[in-house]
Amino acid sequence: MPKLFSGPVALLLALAAALTLSACDPNRVYEENTDLTSPSGDPYVWDVQQRPSFTFAIADTTARYDVYFNVRNAAGYGFYNLYLKHTLTGPEGRVVGRPLLHQMIILDPKTGEPLGAGAGDIFDHQFLALRKVHFARPGNYKVTLEQYMRQNQLPGIMSVGVRVVREGK
Fold first, then answer.
1. CATH number, domain 29-166
2. Is the dihedral of CA 68, 23, 75, 52 positive or negative?
3. pTM of the model as a whole
């Protein structure tokens, strides 16, 4: 049987198929990512003052939800980890729970090899940040993210995002 596709064409078709399958996740309630730039317009820099917010609607208060943080980094990111703090605000505008600090491992600490799904020098990560969350009231919730590293300008972080998934029943 002849081979229809090979090399880069086969890779692109496989990537397109993977994206199509991931887009059909019936349990996904919300997913959005924000590209990062410094205040002076330099791409792929997360400034300490930049706090992306993500607003999503919860209708079913009987379900449990997992909340993931998405991170895309360039190979030149200078640390093996990323400290990120999140704040969750409920429909009434009040903070739900306490703000939490998360450590996300971007590179293998011993070898320096990039972790996550990568193509070329870009790597995508999805970290489970909140497990089995019960949202008490229906309405819009907002997650605000802020980088919590010891550096005001954090080069190499291309984008961050939030994904909310209803737990399977």
1. 2.60.120
2. negative
3. 0.82
